[in-house]
Structure formats: structure tokens, C-alpha cells
Amino acid sequence: KAYFDRALAYKKVGEHEKAIADYTKAMEVGPLEPLSYYNRANSYYEKKEYGRAISDYTNALAMDPRYINAYINRGNAYYSTGVYYKAVIDFTKAIELEPKSAIAHINRGYAYIEDARYEKAIADFSKAIELNPNGPAAYIGMGDALYLSRGNALYERGDGEVVTALANYSKALKLDPENADIYFYKATRFKDILSSDVIVKAYRDFLKYAKSDDGRIREAKKRLKEYGLP
Q1: Rg of the chain on CA atoms, in Å
Q2: Helices 68-80 and 84-97: crossing angle, nearest 10°?
Q3: The whole model's pTM is what?
Q4: Contacts by 150-153 with C-beta closer than 8 Å and gap 24+?
Q5: CB–CB of 82/73 below 8 Å?
Q6: What are the pLDDT digits (tens) for 125-141?
Q7: 32-73: pLDDT as tens digits
Q8: How far apart, in whole angstroms, are the C-alpha atoms of residue 103 and residue 213?
């Protein structure tokens, strides 16, 4: 218990290497529990050691085959390694166990996007919006899937509402007004239909909220110069 508790404390402050060591020690002294594998897997995931994370999630699922979060996080690990079909399998299993999991639908939607299965992605994001209409992630995903599959053409959702990619990004921004990604998408993906003033504002908002190491900052500054702005 002491090793496990200390591992949790290390994880909270981002000391994942120390957390892994303590989770491992806790597992050595026993008893072995699915949560121990799951938590150590999460620390491996944060360190981008996806293979080890997948192994630990798999061990957790062997002990508890109904561990929904382990399916979701193992799916995330598969997604991060580019094994999208396995990610889809895990997200699907999580949905089977908990059909009302918005995050499982969102994550599966993104996995479908990577495989260019846009209609399936749109269906998942639509369901996620239905389950959690106040969550920006589903609207961003919906915007991505619509844009990649049909530009900004109209799309009639299952509930009868007609939407576009841009409309979904706009909705996401209302829910998450400091999301740099969405401002960048607005400025770059819809430059042919938005006014120059709107595009310039989108670039400026992107620069305002982007992290200092965002590789797109240089491009945004370059585009602003093209508009004759500093």
C-alpha cells in the first residue's frame, strides 16, 4: 500500500519513472491487482513507452475483462503507434461495455479518420455529441471528419440538423475559446470562404493561445506577413 500510494503521488507531479518503480515494487510484494497494471501502464504511456503500456493494459484486462478504461487507454496506445485497426477494436469493446461513453466514441472516430473511414467517424462524433453536447472534442472531431471527407459542404446529421465542418469548429470554440488548434484550422482550411479579417483574427488568436513549442507558429507569422501585418 505504501509503494502504491507513493507511486500515485509521483504520477501526480509527473515523476513517471519513479512512479513506475514504485508500482513495480508494489506488484512484487503483492497482491497483484488490475489497478496496479493499469496505473503503471498509464505512466509508461506518459513516457511514450507505448509497447510497455500496451503490455500492462493487456495484463490488467486479463485479470478484469470488463475494465473499460483499460480498453480505452490501450486503444489510445495502439493509436499512438499507428495500429489503428487495433485501436478501433479496443474502443469498440469499450463501447460494447459502456454504450454511453462519449470518449470511446470520440477516440474511435479519430481512429476511423486515420483509416479514411470518414462516414464511420462522422457517425461516432455525432453519437458523442448526442451523449455530451457540451464537450468540445466531439465537435472538433466532427469538423475534422467533415472537412476531410467533403470540405465545407452541408451534412445532415442523424437528428436532422444540417451542419458544416466550419460550423462544428465554431461550436467547439464557443465551448473552448482558448483552443489554438481550432483557430489554426479556421485560418488554413477555410481561407477560400472566410474574409481576410476573419482569417487574420484566427491567426492572431492561434498565436495568442498556442504553446511556445508549437511548430505551426512560424507558418502563422508568415501568413500574417503576407497580409501586410507584423
Answers
A1: 21
A2: 160
A3: 0.89
A4: 152/190, 152/193
A5: no
A6: 999 999 999 999 999 99
A7: 889 989 999 999 999 999 999 999 999 999 999 999 999 999
A8: 27
